[in-house]
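Q: Could you fold this chain for me?
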Amino acid sequence: MAQFSAGSWVKHSDHLAALEAQAEEHRTGLEGKDRYIEVLQAELESQLEEYEAGLTRQEGSWHRMMEDRKTQHAKDLAEKCAKHAKTFRRLVEERNDADQRADRFAQELAEARGEGEPASVVKHYRKKPIEVEAIQYTGHNDMLITRWSERAVSSSPVLEPTKDNPTGSYLQIKTPEGVLTAIVGDWIIKGAVGKFYLCKPDAFEAMFETGADDA
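A: Sure. Below is the predicted structure, expressed as structure tokens.
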């Protein structure tokens, strides 16, 4: 067994104490690093959760924006169709008024010439029938309508289906009022002077009946 002097033993004890102090300092440093790593990991997980939540919010906003656009597009299209139908009805009424004025003028002219009865006599009159050509859009007769109209009517660029037109098929019609859009079920009318008009099914049924040649 080695023999140590009192001085050597003190020196050896001091060296061991220094080593233990270094080991303790090293352990403390490792614990601090472990805590730092835990803090960093927690921060990264929190940032990842915030990023995923942000993506979810953006995705929801995008879907809402697309739905809002589709709803607005359908609303604009319905308003445009209603406006076109109103314009056509107004034109029909103006045409009827013009015919009535022409009839009154002819009667007054005949009276001035001494022909017929006085214009002040109330009688019953029937408007002269005016035959027109018309075809109803089915969504599958685009080419037939295009040929018949000599390209005054053509297929519209692809639009989204709507509640009023679930097929998504449309026609573009060159009319005296501008280019109108027809949906499935609408009637395309060729007037007496070769102009084309758009007519909604209910209005067409109220104003027209099948001609004698097609009965």
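A (continued): The mean pLDDT is 80.
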